[in-house]
Amino acid sequence: MTEIIDGNAVAERIRSDLQDSIETLADEGVTPGLATVLMSDDPASETYVSMKQRDCEEVGINGIHVELDPDAPAQELYDTIDDLNADPEVHGILVQMPVVEQVDKRRVLRSVDPEKDVDGFHPENVGRLVAGNALYKPCTPHGIQKLLESADVETEGAEAVVVGRSDIVGKPMANLLVQKTPLGNATTTVCHSRTKDLEAHTSEADIVIAAAGVPEFITGDMLKEGAAVIDVGINRVDADNDKGYELIGDVEYDSAKEKAGAITPVPGGVGPMTRAMLLYNTVKAAGRQEDVSVELP
Ligand code: NDP
Questions:
Q1: Mutate-to-test residue for ligand 1 from 232, 245, 247, highest number of ligand atoms within 8 A of CB
Q2: Is residue 279 part of a domain?
Q3: Confidence label for 257 from pLDDT (cuts 50, 70 and 90)
Q4: Which member of 71, 142, 189, 235 has the lowest number of beta carbons within 10 Å of its beta carbon?
């Protein structure tokens, strides 16, 4: 029987467990603060940011939203980041990607104070992650670890294949899976667009993490019987419904479900976890910066 890993339920449990830490902080007069910065008129980015702000409100995190004119000079964004770095009410800063073309993305990543870098993308935090002592694990791969844990998927000694090598998903995911930790210790292979025979890798894997952004390109016949399949992909495809589109993953769900031991759906798998882990990192950041010891789920 294939286990459908319910990302909404796991995310809800994490949000609920975070309440204790938020109360501990409140007892010390601290409200965790998360600043989101949007400099884009991309509707998807606007939606992501508003969802993150709504999540903050629901759990009692102070959400501070800064919206900049997408046509403004890049310096406005750099100055905004400096101001937020200096603001004691802000414990976490998230600059919504992708940034507009006049902005130097690398400068943005470098500018956020590493202590407030709840995305975990500052070069210092990337280095810490690789070294095995991350301040903040990037939200999507961290959420995936929690999903694997929730489904009792053993990573230790497992053959894991990560499809995709982006800085936000593939690379940090692979780095977490190889760490000498309980949710790591996997023998990890990273595949990408230049991989010669993808199926040769996926068909031997106990865990497949699909993060390529290619609709339904991992099919059941590419999987090993009983594999755990985590579908990170969010692909918008035309559909005959009110919205005119639907969201589908990188995995062909129906055929993969026949083969997999456990699988995440899209939507309702990885997406809610990415959001929950942002709240987690913000609470952790508040505890660190305010010197309050908080228990994290
Ligand atoms: P990127 O486009 O930055 O990276 C895609 C990666 O997939 C690249 O490394 C690319 O290889 C590789 N790739 C592309 N096509 C193939 C192929 N045919 N075979 C093997 N590898 C391939 O994407 P992201 O990592 O940012 O995102 C991946 C997907 O996950 C997207 O659908 C995105 O929307 C989704 N996403 C979902 C999140 C969530 O919370 N659920 C969060 C973040 C992303 P190469 O390096 O050689 O180009």
A1: 232
A2: no
A3: very high
A4: 71
